[in-house]
Amino acid sequence: MGKNSTPPKMGNNGGTAFVRINGKRIYLGKYGSQEAAQNYARYIAEWSISPTNISPIGKSVVDTLAVAFLDYTKENCCKSDYSNAKTALRILLKVYSGYPIELFSPKCLKAVQEQFVKQESRYGGKPYSRQYCNKLTNIIKGIFRWGVVQEIVPASVAEALKFVPVLRQGKTEAPDTIPRTDVSDKVVKATLPYLSPTIAAMVQVQQESCMRPNEVCRMHVGDIDMSNEIWMYCPMKHKNTWRGHRRIIPLGKPEQELIAPRLIGKTPEQAVFSPSDAVKEKKGCDTIYRKNRKRHVPEFYTVDSYGRYIKRSIIKANKTLPDNEKIPHWTPYQLRHASVTELSMKYGRDAARAVAGHKTIGVTGDYDHSDVKIAVKIAKERSKKM
After folding, report:
1. Cα separation of 131 and 367, whole Å?
2. Triad 289, 254, 260: Cα angle to 5°
3. CA distance 212 to 224
4. Of residues 22, 27, 165, 13, the one with CA closest to residue 89
5. What is the pTM of this model?
6. What is the dihedral sign for C-alpha 299, 302, 307, 309?
7. Number of H helices, E strands in the chain
8. Strand pairing partners for 233?
9. How do residues 337-382 score in pLDDT, each as one tens digit?
């Protein structure tokens, strides 16, 4: 190492100081703090002697754990998990930025939990639901457990946080979420004529296959194995990709008939259902992209744009429909819920779990409403006998 070599500079990542060595970040503590300055000074002193043999930097503040976990999550987890972790840590650092990790107790987590309850959504200003507050609390617990493996958090600290209870219904100011209802097949069929051919095909494929909205939006041509009678759709990325789970979605004849015309002339990397296809359609053209011809047309729909198009189509249709024929608003998530319920009633909950891509029957139970529908059906049959 030459005498004129420039030592690495201190960086700032979300309020946490760091330096980079051999392509890896070494976190120093809260940016601007005395701890970070001391760690950086020691690092530079040791670096000048041997750039590859540096003593471990102190990792004692909550900020260090937060930034390290976000770096890990961004590389290894799905976008929704990263977004939720970012939300949980943003609120955590509002209260405990610069706080020593070894002093973070169950009382501290309960204080953060109360901050979750006081938060308001960035979209609409609504308070976080009780269920979401509990989810964020569990994320914090998980982050501290992860920190134990990384030797950032003492095991005793993570163990103690397990005893912080979740928020109970009726015992907190946080509101409960309204359970998502199914959308009936009748409503879906009434909506189809008002959708563009591309969106209508997406809705029908999702309904038949019980896909997640993101799975139908992100379908690549190359993701579909058409070598057998039943096609197999294997998404490159899905909700549980980072967990090492593989998602396989069988596509029967109804789905194949809807998909096949949209594969012609496309490369494996292109979208099966693309906004650019909607632009080219003579009827029902996607108005989002017709208004501004110069606007870039994305290759794939997003879950948001998919849902917004359905919503706008229903609003436009209801302006011309009589009151007794107006279409109630529904979302792609309700379509999936309805499909899971129907599968549970026809083939049983375990079969519905397999098709929906759930790893446990318990998750499927949260989705479907077959138990209630079966009970209502039995009650009606009993009433006829009286």
Report:
1. 15
2. 55
3. 16
4. 13
5. 0.58
6. negative
7. 17, 6
8. 224, 249
9. 888 777 777 776 666 566 655 554 444 445 445 544 544 454 455 4
